[in-house]
């Protein structure tokens, strides 16, 4: 396995974790501004990590 693919997988898993945590904050939030700030930060970072990981996995070619 290629090192870029492993890094892409790690980024994808971190992105999924960030998006899940943002969803948990959204469901459990009571509308406080502190919760909204954390929700936006974790949501954006999770989305960026997820997209970067997926694109890194897709663009890396298999070499034997």
Name its key features.
64 residues; 0% strand; mainly alpha
Nutshell version of this structure?
The chain has 64 residues and is an all-alpha fold. Helix content is 83%, strand content 0%.
CA-atom Rg in angstroms: 15 Å
Summed up, the domain count is 1
Mean pLDDT comes to 87
The coarse overall form would be rod-shaped
- The stretches of 5 or more residues where confidence is low (pLDDT under 50) are none
The count of strands amounts to 0
The biggest sheet, with number of strands, parallel, antiparallel or mixed sense and barrel status, is: none
Give the fraction of residues assigned to helices: over 70%
Order of SSEs: HH
Number of helical stretches of at least 4 residues: 2
Question: What gap, in angstroms, lies between the N and C termini?
Answer: 9 Å
Strand content: under 5%
Name the structural class: mainly alpha
The multimeric state of the shown protein is single chain
Description of the structure:
The N and C termini lie close together (9 Å). Helix 1 runs antiparallel to helix 2. The chain has two helices and no strands. The protein has one domain (3-59). It has helices at 3-28, 33-59. Helix content is 83%, strand content 0%. It has 64 residues and is mainly alpha-helical.
């Amino acid at each position: 396995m290629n090192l870029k693919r492993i890094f892409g997988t790690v980024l994808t898993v971190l992105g999924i974790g960030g998006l899940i945590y943002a969803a948990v904050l959204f469901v459990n939030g009571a509308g406080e501004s502190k919760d909204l700030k954390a929700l936006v930060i974790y949501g954006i970072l999770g989305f960026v990590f997820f997209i970067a990981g997926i694109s890194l996995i897709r663009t890396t070619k298999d070499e034997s």
